[in-house]
Amino acid sequence: xxxxxxxxxxxxxxxxxxxxxxxxxxxxxxxxxxxxxxxxxxxxxxxxxxxxxxxxxxxxxxxxxxxxxxxxxxxxxxxxxxxxxxxxxxxxx
Length: 93
Fold this sequence. Notes:
Elements: E1 8-12, H1 21-37, H2 39-49, E2 53-57, H3 72-92
Parallel strand pairs: 1-2
Helix pairs in contact: 1-3, 2-3
């Protein structure tokens, strides 16, 4: 059954230049875990915006050469900050 509910989709893109496969996969897992922890915030965003939301996450300046081992505490604040910015913009429209 199709519903007209807004959809949230996201992707995590990590270049091989950022690190080896173990590091890249860990980064992706941590981003997904951060998003799942903020699921209520995503629900608020789509209810406010009343439209579909697509987000692509990328490590930006984080790389294996700068940060050998990454942890959830390194990723989660950035994901949360991005979701708050998206929510703020959705509320303005």
